[in-house]
Amino acid sequence: MEGFRAFTSCLSRAKEKGIINGTGAWKIGDIKGSKAMPQAYEVGKKYRQGIIHKWLRQLFSISEESSRRKVSGKG
Known about the structure:
Order of helices and strands: HH
Strand content: under 5%
Low-confidence stretches: none
Shape: flat
Structural class: mainly alpha
Radius of gyration: 20 Å
Largest sheet: none
Distance between the termini: 51 Å
Mean pLDDT: 79
Helix content: 55-70%
């Protein structure tokens, strides 16, 4: 974990939000069927949904802003 934290400390917006332990996985495929897989999937899904929601909010706020300007005659 410390090596990963050292790497992410070089990235400007990286934040550690938690840890999912995949203990006992030493070979390819060992992690399948463990508790870590569904946990990681759910975290990834929530993260992706958050990014999409943020993008949509930005997109619609820009669209609403430009349409307000058009209605008011300022755009």
